[in-house]
Structures are given as C-alpha cells and as structure tokens.
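Suppose a colleague, Dr. K., hands you the sequence of a protein chain of 274 amino acids and asks what its three-dimensional shape might be. Before reaching for any lab equipment, you can write down a predicted structure in token form. Begin with the sequence itself:
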Amino acid sequence: MIAFVNTNLITCGGIITNYEYVKELRKRGIEANLYANEGNAEMERVYGIKHTPLSELKTTEKDVIIANRWEQCEDLNKYQGRKIQFVQGRDTDFYKNHTSLPQLIATRNDPRWELIGVSEYCLQDWGRGTVVPNGINERFFKDYGVERDIEALVEGNNEPNKNIPYAIEQAKKDGHQKIVWMGRETCPVEGVETITNPPQEEIPKIYQRAKHFYKYSISEGFSLPILEALLSGCEVHTHDQGHNFPELTKEYAIRFTWERSTNLLLEYLNEIPS
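The predicted structure, expressed as tokens, is then:
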C-alpha cells in the first residue's frame, strides 16, 4: 500500500497532487489511499476518492507512507514502512521568520525520512532528495471551443506570496482592459472581474478564454497553473526570481501528464508495493 498522509485536504496544488496519484495508482491495480483528519467534498466528488481518517492508518513494513507536511513526520515515526516526505513547496519561504524553523530543519535532516520534491527549487535548502514533477489533468487536454474573451487572466489566492497586486498592475500596464482574477479566495479590485473558487470542471474553460496569463508569485513549489495556461494556449507572463519558474518553463513545460509523473514516482520507489 502507498499511504498519502495529510492534515486537512484543502483545495490546492499539493492536495490535487495526492488525489491525482491515488487515482493513477489505483488504475494500475496498486493499493493507494488518502489519509487526513478532514476531507474535501469537492475533491471527493471530482475524483470519486474518499479519504480515510488519519486515526485509522495502519501500516506494515511493506507499505510506503508519503507525508505532505513536515509537522506530521514526528507523529508518523511510530508507523512501520518506508517513510517519504513529499516536499510540495519551499517551506523556508514561509517559515524563515517563524519559531518553527529549527524544528523544520531538524525534521528534514532526519535520516529516517526520504525526501522527494516537485521541483529542484523545493529541495535547494536540504541538500538531498529526488525531483518528481507534477503532471497535468486530462481536462486541460480538451478543446472546449470557447471564445477568448479574457484579455488577461491572473490566478492565485489572496495570500502575500501569490503577489496578486503586482500581477494585476503588470496586466494594466500592458494595456489590457478585461482583466480577470481567479482564485480560491479573492477580494474586490477596481477594474478587475473576480472568479472565486470555481468548480474544477470549469477551470480549463476559463484558461481557454484567456489570451494572456499573469503569474508573479514570490514563491511556488511547482505552479501547476503555469503549465495549465501554457497547455491552454495562453501567452504566459512571469518572472525568474525566488522560485522554480525558470526550471518549470524551460525544462518541464507541458511535457508531464499524471501518467508520466506516476511512472517517475514508481521508478523512484524501484518496485510496485503490494
């Protein structure tokens, strides 16, 4: 069994990664399960995968535990099996001024845990680990035949690291009149249309409506939206500071599906757990 362990299944790139892997592994006949304290009704509906309460996790020496947050590692040391932490973001970007940083570093340096990360950028601080990039959901490979009526699409939640005001400012400087901000959480911005927490099925259509895509985050782990925008035919506007965007756009752009990403994961594991 491969057990993907989380605290809460909020809708974000890291959690989508979990659902995509569980879906793909199960298609191959491999037992894979998602464990969390709290579920996500939308993701369960989209993927048809229900989570199992973390309290019900039981493992053997043959199992693989993949944890998605460093805080969980100490608690998970009591379980049997191969232990891997999947680094979905550059945690020091968020915790460098936080009292938890010493604990974070100690956990990441724990030899009982292997590290895999979605990008080289995520693993830079730790001096070890293997990159297993994310993939793109098959929804983005379809042509929905929509009109490209959005001049500039800005994507991201209303969080400081997403740098949304700067992205909107850049879109306005470029002379775009119809600017749309899409995110799980947004707020009113003068002259900008907002699309808040759209259903997963609608997101590819929104991308295909956009001529230009703006992403200027201060930090990202992998940034699926950039690949989704490239695949949707948008002209992507970004920068090369403080994150993995150059790595992503130069080497990984569009090449990865979840099927291929799962192949890389299993290649890293060297064998299919049974």
